[in-house]
Amino acid sequence: MGTMLQDMRYGVRMMLKRPGFTLIAVLALALGIGANSAIFSVVNAVLLRPLPYEAEERLVTIETRNANSGSIGGVLSYLNFADVRDQSRTLEYAAAYSQSGTFLAAGDELERLRGVVISADVFPMLGVKPLIGRTYTREEDQKGARKVIVISYGLWQRRFGSDPKIVGQEIPIGTRPALVLGVMPKGFKFPVEAETVEFWQPLVPNLSDTDTQRRDAQWLSVVAKRKAGVTEQQAQTEISTIASRLQAQYPDTNTSVGFALTPLHEKLVGDLRTALFVLLAAVGCVLLIACANVANLLLARAAARHKEVAIRRALGASRWRIVRQLLTESILLSVMGGGLGLLLGWWGVDVLMAAMPTDIPLAGEVSLDWRVLAFTAALSILTGILFGLAPAMQSSKLDLNESLKEGGRGSTEGGSGRLRSALIVTEIAVSMVLLVGAGLLGQSFMRLLDVSPGFNPQGVLTTDVVFINKKYAEDERKVATLDEILRSASALPGVQAVGTVDPLPLGGNFVAYSFNIEGRAPFNPSEAPSADRRTITPDYFRAMAIPLVRGRAFNARDAKDAPPVVVINETFARRFFAGEDPVGKRLLFDDEPDAPAREVVGVVGDVRHAGLDVEAGPEFYLPYAQAPAVRATLVVRTTAADPASVITPLRDMIRRIDKDIPVYNVKTMGQLLSESVARRRFNMMLLGTFALVALFLAAIGIYGVMSYSVTQRTHEIGIRIALGAQARDVLKMVVRQGMTLVLVGVLIGVVAAFSLTRIMRSLLFGVSPTDVMTFAAVSIVLAGIALLACLIPARRATRVDPMVALRYE
Predict the structure, then answer these.
(1) Neighbours of 66 (CB within 10 A)
(2) Taking Cα atoms as reference points, which of 620, 785, 618, 758 lies closest to residue 696?
(3) Radius of gyration, alpha carbons of the chain
(4) How high is the pLDDT of residue 405?
(5) Quick one: 427 exposed, middle or buried, by C-beta within 10 A (0-12, 13-18, 19+)?
């Protein structure tokens, strides 16, 4: 311990003696360690930290699996869920849920709340008890039961002032008051993937007759908990057996319906795993380059300290004693870098949280907890050993006779020179891999932005309206009021066209229905094709600039009592009417069993509703007057430079028509389009930032090595110039030395990138992970910057004065 303290004191003195060296080394390490800590905090929260529920390792999701294709869907019908729940012997609990929304009255205003309708079993399944009050029971999760609600801690604080007497009171929510049963503890959230959860209500009272009577009405997410001691394989075998039983029992709806179990945590992180590990590997590469730079600095310093080390060896210090002293100094540097890196990581987490897309599950749990602190501490020590070991071992290999001579400066240059060259090659190769990865993501993102969404988002404002008041129980009242809103909105200054749609493109909601084509043999109910349904008003296509390809759009004559009509998209037409004119054909939809067939009156262009990276599927549009709904999204095309300027007059106009109609979720289509690519933009920006940092550090490393090489070869260069070498000869010699290392590094980097970028395949769009143009462009850019880093010391070498150089040693 005494000698260790002695080594530490001596190491501190050496760092204080060379403050410039210490500052550069600590900053380089802090940058690498801080970036690693920040990214690891995200990996820790999303991938490593267990879910905050009791026995979370036994929680699973149950999804539908197509027995023919093997594809896993996601949602179940209530009847299928109920059969799985009641027939399973390996599941301790099973709960179905769907995200929901309602309105809370606050004086004359209505506040939009986001919540969940969910089975009563969810609370005991998760092992979470309310802060005050209780949760609802199975008896309250039945048709005809009293309307009850459990509220979140945040809602309790924000709207009810943390009043404990709220339990047992009725609050004005939705169309009728609900009895507050309890308040959940702070931080509780389920489902985890939901952006916000402010309330929980029983599932069954919120189901329609169709939901409880039709086995093919699939819209419920299901989470379950395996019994203790039951393996995932045992539970999967049982629910597969249940699926087979239901297929035989209900051939009309379940012929191809199977069930699949997935651990809840695995389901939540899904495709995030690859992206986060790629980012973690990227910051690891940045730290590796920082370590290589510091190792080069230490090698350069070791050359200046070789006499000191030789004297210590001559006085009896063992090789291990020298190595331990130098490693202690390295670890002191890395610990200082780790401390500063932790502060940078703390700041980096805030930056990441501000830039992170809102749809990343568990992102709210990101913090610098004990795992991150332990990771940073271990990383700091390992980093010190990594960059310090090679220089320490190199310094301990001394020829004492040569080192103690007055002219022994170059005695260690052979080995350390080769080591510095190897480090530079490593830096270039690692930078090449990062730059190629960033280039692929950047090119992928640009190609994604070039994809047409099928509409023109410029100048379009959207806002949701909902008819929740009892006076809108009749469909005629909804249609008449919406017509009045559309007429009034059209008269607002700067408004070109107004329509409504439900659900909105890129809004994250989908409603699919199966159908048959009149005049053709009906499909087997379990194999009938389906298409996404949109309900619109006549001017919607004009407001969104969706092109009409064939036939006509809806008009005012397509009223409730008019012949039922439908408009389909191009994909629908190609898939089901190949070689035919679809206009005039008639479709029978399963959700309208008693209604006459709908005539196809038009075909419109495809719209990428699910995202720019998802091809449009079959879709159909119904006129709102023939399929009125409680909710609709206004789509307003304006000539204003900022569509948001229409928000206030639009909201005032609706309030004048009826103050009981809430207006919420106001966004421009540009915002929605930006949000739809947020994950890809986030990945691209982070990896691009790390790649640029790596390039900067690599360039600094090349410059430092070449500058040191020129300094060491000053005597040689002077002799060459004295013997007649021209400036261009010296320039070529120095540049050739540096660029040889660079080209070797680029070649190794190309081979490594060719193998490693395949891992990124799922993160790319429209770009091959081995895209030749990207590899070529990155190679040229990297070589060009490296050439610049070599030219600066090379030009300095050409200005060496032979008389001074010949007296250099």
Answers:
(1) 14
(2) 785
(3) 34
(4) 54
(5) buried
